[in-house]
Amino acid sequence: MGQKELKDKELPEDIREKLKALIAELEAREGNEIIIDRTGPGSIDIRISDVEALWYVAYKTISQ
Amino acid sequence: METYTSEMTEKVEELDNLTWQGIQSLLDHYAIVEDGDHIIIAYTPDCRNAAAWVALACEERGFQTRMLFMMPLRDKGFHDRLQTEINLSKKIAKRIMLFMFENETMSHNVVVKKIFASFDSNAYKVIRGINTGKNLFKYGLSEHPDDLSALNATILERCKTATQLRIKTENGTDLKVQLNNSKFKYMSNRGVGRPGKFIVIPSGEVATFPETINGTLVADFAINVNMILREDVRLEYNPVTVEIKNGKMVSYSCQDEKICAFLDKCFSIENTDFVGELGFGTNRGVLFAVRENSHLNERVPGVHLGFGQHNQTPEAAGYDCDIHIDLCAIGGKIWFDDQTEPLDLSQVPYSTIPHSELVNCQDVFSDDAEDDCCGLLRD
After folding, report:
1. Does the distance separating the beta carbons of A36 and B45 come in below 8 Å?
2. pLDDT digits over B294-321, tens only?
3. Rg (CA), chain A
4. Which residues in chain B touch residue A61, judged by CB atoms under 8 angstroms apart?
5. Residues 6 or more apart from B171 whose CB is under 8 A from it?
6. Contact B6/A at CB under 8 A
7. What is the ipTM of this complex?
């Protein structure tokens, strides 16, 4: 498929509807790809070893 | 195993026209998408919305786009899922364009490198976004890579022929720096892709390691740190003043109690008192500091010092450290050796000489693990 000419590249009028549909599709698909522990609205538990990931090691260090 | 509850939720941000324009800039000037590209977008949950924006922008252009979910840092299934997508794409694509969008992390670097190891370096392109969201697209991508290259080239040309720098800002920064250009390498992040190398966005920075540095830094723009930091990182009304002697922080102060408490914890960690990075932001699209801990803030035209982790080999720098704390000042001027005319960091002229290909074109977040001074790419 060829790349369309988008001279003005303005935000398409129907973008919000498309976004809503795509995000719903992604959320549904994510549940099939990996087990996510959703502990509440908007929060996710990340299970990692405390020595595996610098980011969280650092986070732990700084939180103590 | 331990469990951390992270705020890894997607930010609910409205897609507006300026953000859309930034996404177009990403596709036109950074990715330089072409007919025949097959686009894969990998994203973490906190960037789902932003990933969807880019997917729709690609689809508006007629590209078929595949979306791939990934957990940050640790995702045992990601290799197989990405490999499956790549296998499907390489049968039909002239080139595979992989976007990876994350917010606070840069994950699975080794996975991506392994999967593309057998590819011709022109048959794929990888663009990695950190702090992905509205601000990245809206402000971070408004400057074109060609312009960033020309600005970075100017700073590199001046620094690489100098041994002494004097750096001053209006709010009181006054630093004396000795460079050692035969020992310490430079990083230049400019959003320009090289075959086989990743592009890291946001772009716009030149950095090196100072042989010695003394004086005062008044960080009046923002903090950026490779740790979880939920506080407001802006320093406009509460600058951090750091006294530096022989390449090490000897004292610091800030009127904001929360920032001070955070810095107390940071600087209590071994080797975080070393100045590990002398950086100059060059992205003129960064007009103001954003509230959240973000690389956008260190791209502001100005000077910043990174304390702790450095951008060199441990042998060259002489120490190692996992923590990297950038303290950023906006604007400023650099005097090179005995030259009387300074370089104004807020008005750097574009170089007419092409950017050197010998300088590492990534930044401290290089895709080369040995150059990964901030540790985000370790896998």
Report:
1. yes
2. 999 999 999 999 999 898 998 999 998 8
3. 20
4. 269
5. B218, B220, B239, B329
6. yes
7. 0.81
